Structures
1.
Amino acid sequence: MLSTARTENYNLHQRILFDAGLFIGALLKNDPRYNEARALVEQARLGNLPVCTTASILGEVYGALTWEKAEPPHTSMEAAEAVRLLVEPPSAIQIIEEGMEAILCALNLAAQHKLTARRIHDARHAGAALSSGIRKIYTYDIKDWQPFEQNGLEIVGPDSIMTYLRRKVNKEI
C-alpha cells in the first residue's frame, strides 16, 4: 500500500519511472543536477509526483554512491542507508517488478535495437517499465532511452532535459 493519500489516486500505469541519474543527482551534493534532482526526488517521496523505479536502478544508485570518484564519496553503510531512505516508507516511491515478463521484454528490446554488453541494462529497465504498463520516463541519460521511444516509452522530464530536447529540435528545423 502506498504511504500517502496523494499517490493512492494514481494507478501504476500513471506513474513515471525515475532512472538512476535522478536519484544520483539528488544524493551527490557536488553533482550539477543536484538542485533539480533533489527537488524532484523529494516531491516523489512525499507523493506529490507519482514515481516508480526498479531494484536494479536502485542498485545502480548504490554503485554510483560507492564509486571511488563520487563527490562526496559514500561508504557502503552510507550508500545503503541513502538508497533505503529513497524508497522505504513513508516514501511514496513505488518499486516495480522485474520478473519473467520484464526480462523477456528486455531481451526482445536488446535484440530489436541491437544492444550489446552493458547496454542490456538499459533494455532491462525499459522492459520492466513496459511490462508494468509504465510509459513515462524521467532521465538525464536521453541517449540510453531514446531507442525505446518507438516501443512506447516517452521521456517526459526532468525540465532541464525537456529544454535541451526542445532546443535540439529547433536547431534541426
2.
Amino acid sequence: MKTLSIILLVAIIAANIECQFRSPIDSFKEINQHLDSTNTINWYNLAGIELVVTQNFIDTVQKLKRKIIESSGGWIDKNGKRHTDGNWSNNLGTLYNDANLKSSTKLMVEQGNGKMLYHLIQDTRNQFLHLIVDSIDRSNLSQQIPLGIPVGPKIITDSTWTARNFEQVPVIAVLTLFSKFESDAINSEHILKHYFEEKLHHEFPDSLKSEKRK
C-alpha cells in the first residue's frame, strides 16, 4: 500500500507537467518504471521529473519578467536604440524605466499574477519534496530546499505576500526578486540531484544534469 501511494503521488505530479508527459496514462507508465523487480526506486526517473518541475517554474517566471519589462517601456541597447520587447538582460543594455512603480502593481497585484506566483512557489516546493520517498529524508531535506514562502509567527496569505513584494515596487526590484526565485528553484534542484546521486552511489549522466537545460 505504501508503494502504491508513492506511485500515485508521483504520477499526479507528472501528469501536471504537460511538456513532459502527454496524459495521465502515460504518467502511470513512466512512474511504474520507478520501481524495478525488487521494488527499488528508480532514481534516474525521479531526477528526470525533477528537471521538468524546475524548468516549468523557470519558464513561468521568465514570462513574468518579459511582461513587466514590456509594460514598463522595454529597454535601451548599448547603441541607444529602444526595444519594446521583454527580452532584456544586463549585458544587452539598460531598462527604459527601471524605477517604474505602476507596472509591477498592475501586473502582479491587479492582474492576479502575484497570487499565481505565490501558489506556484508553494506547489513547486511540494513537488520537489514529494519526489523524496523516505519520510525522514524528506523532513531533513525540507530544511535545506530554499524555494518556498517564508514561514513566520503569522500566516502569510497570498494577498499579503503579493502586496508586500509587488505593490508600488520598482521594476528593477521586482526583476531582482524574480531572479532570486529562479536561483532558489535551481539550488533546490541541485540539492535533490545530489540526494538522488547519493542513493545511486554515482553521478547522473549529462542528460540528467541541469547544465543541459535548454
3.
Amino acid sequence: MNGRMTKRLLTIGMLAGPLVLLVGLTLAMTREGFELQRHGSSMLALGEHGWLQTLNFCITGLLTTALALGIGRALRGQPGGRWVAWLLGAFALMHILVALFPTDPAFGFPPDPGTPPGAPLTDDASFHAIVHSLAGFTGFNALAIACFILAWHFARKSLFWCALSVLTAAAIIMIDIYAMRWELAHAGPERASAQFNFLPMWVLLPLIWGYLSGLAWVMKRRLEVVQ
C-alpha cells in the first residue's frame, strides 16, 4: 500500500514540469508586449489575464508538493532522504508564495502608462515584490542544495544522474551570480532605464523541470523493480 501511494505521488509530481512550462510559454507567446528576452516568467502574473499565471504557479506548487512527498517516501531511510524532501518542499512552497505575492511591473510590462521602462528603484519596491524575490531566491537555492544531496545519493548508483544533479545545481548557482552581478551594477538611478536579459532564466526552466520529472520517473521505476 505504501509503495502504491508513493508511486501515485511521483506520478502526480511528474505533471508539474510539463504544466508550468506549457502554460508559461503559451502565455509568453500570446501576451501583448511580452518578450522572453526582456521579461521573466513571474511577470506573466501581472496585468490582464495575469490570473492564469497565478493559477499556474499555485497548481505547480501543489503538484511539486506531491513530488517532494513521493521522493521523500522513496528515499525513506536513506542518507539525506529527509533533507531532499524538505528542500523540494521549500521549492514547492516558493511557487505558492510567488503566486500570492506578485512582483512589481518593470521593463515595460505590462504595457501600461505607469510601468517603468527599466527596473523599479530598490527603495520603491513594494512589500509583495520583496517577498516575491526572497521566496524565489530561497526556493531555487533550496532546490540547488537538494540537487547536490541527490548527486551524493546517485554517486555509486548512476553516473548519469549524479552528473545531471550537479549540472542542475551548478546552473541555478550560475543564474544566481548572473542576477546578483546585474543588481550590483545597477544599484543607482540608472536602474530605472536599464534592461535585463531574461533568456538565461528561460533556458534554465526546462533543465530544472526536465530533471525533476526524470527524477520522479527514476524513483518510480525503482519501486516497480523492487516490487
4.
Amino acid sequence: MNEQASRTEYTLCNATHTDLPLVDVVIVNSRGAEAKWFRQALSSAKEQTYAHLGVWVVYNNDHALSIGAARNLAARTSKAKWLLFLDDDDYMSIDLAAHLASTIEKLRNRPVPDEPNAVNDLSQLVMVTSGMTMVDDRDQVLSERQQYDNGVHGLTYLQMHHTGMYLREWLVANPADETLTRYVSTDMQRKAILHGKKMDRRSTWATSYHYGYHYRQHFGMISGEKLVRL
C-alpha cells in the first residue's frame, strides 16, 4: 500500500458544540479535485448542520490506493468518534450527519435490558445507516418506479442503504478489505453485522430516512456497494 502517493486533507467545519461526539465525513476522491460531482459531494459534507463535524478527503486520483485502503487511512488518521462515508459522486442533505449521530447516541445510551442476549441490547452498536434516494447524472431524482426497477439482487430502493456511519475505534480494529475492487461497503457492513452476531447482540441499525443520502446512478450502472439486508 503506497500511502505516500495519496494526499489527505482535513477541515474542521463545525465546532459549535465540542461536547458532542466528533463526526468526520470521509470522502475518497478518485475523480480529481475539480470534478463537478466531487465538488458537490464535498460541499454537502461541509454544509452539515451537526455541531461537531470535520471532513477528511483522501485524494486518490492516481489510484495508488484501493477504496478500502483509502478508507482505512482516514480511519487511522482521524480523531473522531464516528466516521460517515460519502462516495465522491454522491451527496448528502444538510441534516444527515445530525440524524445519524443522534440516532446512534440515543440507541447506544438506552438502558441495557436485564434479559441476557436481548435483541434490544444495543451496547455493541458500531454502525448506523439510512435509506437513500437515487438521482441520475443530472441530479434528477428517479421516480419511485425507476428506483424500484433499479433495485439490485432482489432489493428495492426502499431496502437499499448507503455505506453508513461507523464507530471509528471499531473500524480501526476491523478495517475494510484493501484487496477488494468492488463491494467494499457491502463487506464493511457484513463485518459490522457479524460483530453483533458473535455476541448475540444487534450491532447495526438502519433508519427509514430516505432523503438524507443521494446516490447517483450514472452510465446506467449501480456500483453494487449497498447489497446487505440490515
